[in-house]
Amino acid sequence: MASILKVDEIQATDGTAAGGKFNDDRQCVMGFMLTSAVAGGADPITGWTNTATQISARGAGEITRGGSVSHSSGTFTFPFTGLWQIEFYTSLNADGQDNTLQYSVRSTPDGGTTYNTLTQAKAGVQQSGYKQNMQMKTLFDVGNTTQDKIQFQQTSFSGSDQSEADANVMITYCIFTWLGDAS
């Protein structure tokens, strides 16, 4: 007798379960963007706004089944546990001096008492008026939604460097994607 494949269950060709069940009640993909440039250092970077709200007229969207990533004063919290992919993108410019900007994704396991660098990248501009794009991506295991949080940090080595932003287009932005339950 042939077995019936359920839509929410992945099965191997021999009919045994090949993986877990798809959870349609728990999905989250959200973006946040800066609408004003961030000059010099910022620990943490603040001024984030929800991309789907800010530029929805241009087609920006999100998936928030089961909860949304939230932020306050540059600190991001997660709606549910599991493995999250965190992406950060920016366009930067400088005055041509010591023009390096360093960006860090920082995590806390204790609700915000201490932050540690999870991922870090540096970018620079060779001459005044030139721009550079920079991006980084990391994975973050959220085991406790009240304690595990993320911040982005910007360090300028000259003080006159800046991450660019615009209220009408994503120039400096981050994307949070829930990948699934962590093992």
- The first-level CATH class is given as Mainly Beta
Low-confidence stretches: 3-12, 14-21
| Oligomeric form | single chain
The total beta strand count reads 15
Helix content: under 10%
| N-to-C CA distance | 35 Å
- Total tally of structural domains: 1
SSE string, helices as H and strands as E: EEEEEHEEEEEEEEEE
Main beta-sheet strand count, sense and barrel state? 8 strands, antiparallel
The average pLDDT score comes to: 85
Q: Quickly give the structural class.
A: mainly beta
Can you offer a commentary on this structure?
With 183 residues, the protein is mainly β. The chain has one domain: Jelly Rolls. The chain has 1 helix and 15 strands; from the N terminus they run βββββαββββββββββ. Strands 3, 4, 5, 6, 9, 12, 14 and 15 form an 8-stranded antiparallel sheet that branches. Strands 7-8-13-10-11 form a 5-stranded antiparallel sheet, with no helix packed on it. A two-stranded antiparallel ribbon has the order 1-2. The longest helix is centred in the first third of the chain and has 4 residues. The N terminus is likely disordered.
Summarize it.
The chain has about 180 residues and is mainly β.
Keywords:
183 residues; eight-stranded antiparallel sheet; 2% helix; five-stranded antiparallel sheet; mainly beta; Jelly Rolls; globular
